[in-house]
Design brief:
Rossmann fold; 6-stranded parallel β-sheet; 2 domains; transmembrane; L-lactate_DH_AS; 3-stranded antiparallel β-sheet; EC 1.1.1.27; alpha/beta; L-2-Hydroxyisocaproate Dehydrogenase, Chain A, domain 2; 328 residues
Length: 328
């Protein structure tokens, strides 16, 4: 009997990877689109209770798959579609209206988490969970209590977007590429957030030593406060103009997902449960944190000023009060 020839190029078993997004609204759909372009996983799925909407969003993205590194995109109103996901991102929640603060959304959104989380955990108990829904810090804290998951496995998107906004504005003032601006926003993803100016650098030059800005000014207290106000007000301006923020937040969260899926050990200002960080405990809020395949890792402690520490403490107290008022 003739010997069966063996292939010189034996096929390799490829490991499937899966990203599940809960909520097919503006943020969820944009995030799915960004994930497909980035190619962070072999499969992206969208879940939403609106069957027609979620299927249409997924189909629209799927029609462009040949132009991306992805192989599968699908949408459903059946939670089973999320089974065995590596990462679950929750974007579903009450929509922020013009004039509303993020904290105004807390009660309705936490109530929604109490309904969503038990069902998702049944099909994806081992996934890394990223909360995006506002107010993200309070929602993350409540979701940890509801789910019982460890803090490394569940965290919020925090101020990753705010940090990007801060770096963008510093880039505009200095004329240096935003990729070379190293600065963080910590605390609440909202009105009480704190730019960590004392550790901000452009290249390896401390911002306080940078010298003249493009218009000949200095990075003095007035300019820093103007930038901080612009960062805080950015979302309100966008919501007033178009009804929602979705593009930049989609890119920001895709960046977090990439850090998890590729085990990048990247420092990101996610919202994680803090334990004696700058004297702050038992609250979820943004701090520079190492993010990798196991989720949220070590929380870093950059040098900060007394006024920055006071601002962070105030931010923590504000968030803790909202959580307590909701029974958490």
């Amino acid at each position: 009997m003739a010997e069966v020839a063996k292939s010189l190029y034996p096929s390799k078993k490829t490991e499937r990877s899966k990203i599940a997004i809960i909520g097919a609204g503006a943020v969820g759909a944009t995030l799915a689109y960004a994930c497909v372009i980035a190619g962070h996983a072999s499969e992206v799925v969208l879940y939403d209770i609106n069957k027609a909407k979620v299927e249409a969003e997924a189909l629209d993205i799927a029609h462009g798959i040949q132009f991306t590194p992805m192989s599968s995109v699908s949408g459903s109103d059946d939670i089973e579609i999320c089974r065995d996901a590596d990462v679950v991102i929750i974007t579903a929640g009450a929509k922020q209206k013009p004039g509303q603060s993020r904290l105004d959304l807390a009660g309705a959104t936490v109530g929604l988490m109490e309904k969503i989380l038990p069902n998702v955990l049944k099909v994806a108990p081992d996934a890394i969970y990223i909360l995006v829904t506002n107010p993200v810090d309070v929602v993350t804290y409540a979701s940890l209590k509801i789910s019982g998951l460890p803090p490394n496995q569940m965290f919020g998107s925090g101020t990753v977007l705010d940090t990007a906004r801060l770096r963008y504005l510093v880039s505009r003032e200095t004329g240096v590429a935003v990729q070379n601006v190293h600065a963080y926003v910590a605390g609440e993803h909202g009105d009480s957030e704190v730019p960590l100016w004392s550790s901000a650098e452009v290249g390896n030059v401390p911002l306080k030593h940078w010298g003249p800005t493009l218009d000949g000014g200095l990075f003095d207290a007035a300019l820093r406060e103007r930038i901080r106000t612009d960062v805080v007000q950015s979302a309100y301006r966008i919501i007033d103009g178009k009804g929602a923020t979705n593009y930049a937040v989609g890119l920001a969260v895709t960046n977090i997902i990439g850090a998890v899926m590729r085990d990048e050990q990247r420092v990101l200002t996610i919202s994680t449960l803090l334990n004696d960080w700058e004297g702050i405990s038992d609250v979820c809020m943004a701090a520079p944190t190492i993010v990798g395949r196991n989720g949220a890792g070590r929380v870093l402690t950059p040098p900060i000023t007394l006024s920055e520490r006071e601002g962070l403490t105030e931010s923590a107290n504000r968030l803790r009060k909202v959580a307590r008022d909701l029974g958490f």
